[in-house]
Amino acid sequence: MCGAATPVTAGHPAGVFTWNPPTALVVALSDLLDRGRLQS
């Protein structure tokens, strides 16, 4: 968890991990969870 008081080192907030997935991956996973399948 992080909030306004979370320490920042080298531009990254302290925490377990940071991950910035590609937009296309987020959209594909959203479609998969919504429809139960990927669009072709």
TrEMBL record:
Tell me yes or no: is Hydrolase among this UniProt entry's keywords: yes
Protein's name in the database: Exonuclease V subunit beta
Species name for this entry?
Mycobacterium tuberculosis
Q: Which UniProt keywords apply?
A: Exonuclease, Hydrolase, Nuclease
What molecular functions are annotated in GO for this chain? Answer: exodeoxyribonuclease V activity
Q: What is its EC number?
A: 3.1.11.5
